[in-house]
């Protein structure tokens, strides 16, 4: 309950406008926030991720095509886009089935597609595989297999990690916005510190990168991540996972925030106690996790950019494309973001996500009635054996 977090502490959502017409202004603010919490923008964000993914894929594929187009390899671009379609169909189908099981079970066409999803995905890929074999031309075998591998590595780097971004998004907007913002902050602050204080080169692949910028960007990003996490942790719109609401027939982000997003007291080390005079400090647990996210964005995130720099040097090009005049292509802007998204997804799976009762219940409701009854009896026997069921009956 948000109102019981402490009488002496104000969270972000407790602040209100000036006292003039206070009641009316506060009421309007609450209505707006409730409307915000009940509507999800994840569908549009997912669409934006898909658009960025397609453009990044296009930029990388066109590099290979521009280098080897004089060989007139048959169906290279056609097969590349076909494989992109196949992989996206597989990943998006898995995501919809996993996160929106209730919606899938309600609609007969979706239920059929979900049941045979992996077989359909394999059949689509197998069709593309056969098309590639039929397109092989004498004297160009090695080059064609090289481009076949080029396409699949691009799919692995771009599409797979885009899929992980969408998974992070469905866990809650905060898992989407904070990592992206940390990468952007690190890029900006590393440039600023490097510009004013840079003296020592960091890596040969990027001669303009300096140790001073790297270290300054690290500490700036950690502070930024903690502050941004504090602001966003106070709003359900950012912390609640996306769910499908059967009553409103829409996607919602309304929930009771988990302990991760509830203020708790943390004891300070003796050194800080002597400096500040405080023994404890109130923080959201997510702020502690944000330190790990910020650290990765600062230390390992730039290696995504170094990898991209090495790739461009190999093909003697300055940028992936000229989509953004003066800034290169979309891939030039997102080279660090994909590596960051993979880390966030692994971090959630390893340290955050636990068993989800709502998903278990959804799967149980999809079973036949006799199967549900069997599970009910098994669960009842288990609870009775553990001594929990009698306690529940007495409490009732």
From TrEMBL:
Domain of life where this protein originates: Eukaryota
UniProt keywords, alphabetically: Lipid biosynthesis, Lipid metabolism, Membrane, Nucleotidyltransferase, Phospholipid biosynthesis, Phospholipid metabolism, Transferase, Transmembrane, Transmembrane helix
Pathway in which this enzyme or protein is active: Lipid metabolism; Phospholipid metabolism; CDP-diacylglycerol biosynthesis; CDP-diacylglycerol from sn-glycerol 3-phosphate: step 3/3
Chief location: membrane
Pfam family, one: CTP_transf_1
Keyword ATP-binding: no
Any one annotated GO CC term: endoplasmic reticulum membrane
Membrane topology: Multi-pass membrane protein
Single GO MF descriptor: phosphatidate cytidylyltransferase activity
Catalytic reaction equation(s): a 1,2-diacyl-sn-glycero-3-phosphate + CTP + H(+) = a CDP-1,2-diacyl-sn-glycerol + diphosphate; 1,2-di-(9Z-octadecenoyl)-sn-glycero-3-phosphate + CTP + H(+) = 1,2-di-(9Z-octadecenoyl)-sn-glycero-3-cytidine-5'-diphosphate + diphosphate; 1-octadecanoyl-2-(9Z,12Z-octadecadienoyl)-sn-glycero-3-phosphate + CTP + H(+) = 1-octadecanoyl-2-(9Z,12Z-octadecadienoyl)-sn-glycero-3-cytidine-5'-diphosphate + diphosphate; 1-octadecanoyl-2-(5Z,8Z,11Z,14Z-eicosatetraenoyl)-sn-glycero-3-phosphate + CTP + H(+) = 1-octadecanoyl-2-(5Z,8Z,11Z,14Z-eicosatetraenoyl)-sn-glycero-3-cytidine-5'-diphosphate + diphosphate
Regions that span the bilayer: 119-137, 144-166, 172-198, 210-232, 286-308
Assigned EC number: 2.7.7.41
Function: Catalyzes the conversion of phosphatidic acid (PA) to CDP-diacylglycerol (CDP-DAG), an essential intermediate in the synthesis of phosphatidylglycerol, cardiolipin and phosphatidylinositol.
Family: Belongs to the CDS family.
Protein name: Phosphatidate cytidylyltransferase
Lineage: Eukaryota, Metazoa, Chordata, Craniata, Vertebrata
């Amino acid at each position: 309950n948000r109102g019981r977090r402490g009488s002496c502490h104000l969270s972000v959502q407790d602040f209100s406008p000036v006292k003039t017409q206070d009641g009316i202004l506060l009421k309007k603010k609450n209505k707006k926030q409730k409307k915000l919490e009940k509507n999800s923008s994840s569908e549009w964000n997912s669409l934006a991720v898909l658009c960025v993914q397609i453009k990044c894929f296009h930029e990388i594929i066109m590099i290979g095509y521009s280098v080897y187009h004089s060989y007139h390899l048959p169906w290279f671009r056609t097969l590349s886009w076909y494989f992109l379609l196949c992989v996206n169909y597989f990943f998006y189908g898995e995501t919809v089935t996993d996160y929106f099981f209730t919606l899938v079970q309600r609609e007969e066409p979706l239920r059929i597609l979900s049941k045979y999803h992996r077989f359909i995905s394999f059949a689509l890929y197998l069709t593309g595989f056969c098309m590639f074999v039929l397109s092989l031309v004498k004297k160009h075998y090695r080059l064609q297999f090289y481009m076949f591998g080029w396409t699949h590595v691009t799919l692995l780097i771009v599409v797979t990690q885009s899929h992980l971004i969408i998974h992070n998004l469905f866990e809650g907007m905060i898992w989407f916005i904070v990592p992206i913002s940390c990468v952007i902050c690190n890029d900006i602050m590393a440039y600023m510190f490097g510009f004013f204080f840079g003296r020592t080169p960091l890596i040969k692949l990027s001669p303009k990168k300096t140790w001073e910028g790297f270290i300054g960007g690290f500490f700036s990003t950690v502070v930024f991540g903690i502050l941004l996490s504090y602001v966003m942790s106070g709003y359900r719109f950012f912390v609640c996972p996306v769910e499908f609401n059967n009553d409103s027939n829409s996607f919602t982000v309304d929930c009771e925030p988990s302990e991760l997003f509830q203020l708790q007291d943390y004891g300070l080390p003796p050194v800080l106690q002597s400096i500040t005079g405080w023994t404890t400090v109130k923080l959201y647990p997510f702020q502690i996790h944000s330190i790990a996210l910020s650290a990765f964005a600062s230390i390992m995130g730039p290696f995504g950019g170094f990898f991209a720099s090495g790739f461009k040097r190999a093909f003697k090009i300055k940028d992936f494309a000229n989509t953004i005049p003066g800034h290169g292509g979309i891939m030039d802007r997102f080279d660090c973001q994909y590596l960051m998204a993979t880390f966030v997804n692994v971090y959630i799976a390893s340290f955050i996500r636990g068993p989800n009762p709502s998903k278990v219940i959804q799967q149980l409701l999809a079973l036949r009635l006799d199967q549900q009854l069997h599970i009910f009896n098994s669960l009842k026997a288990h609870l009775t054996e553990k001594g929990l069921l009698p306690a529940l009956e007495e409490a009732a």
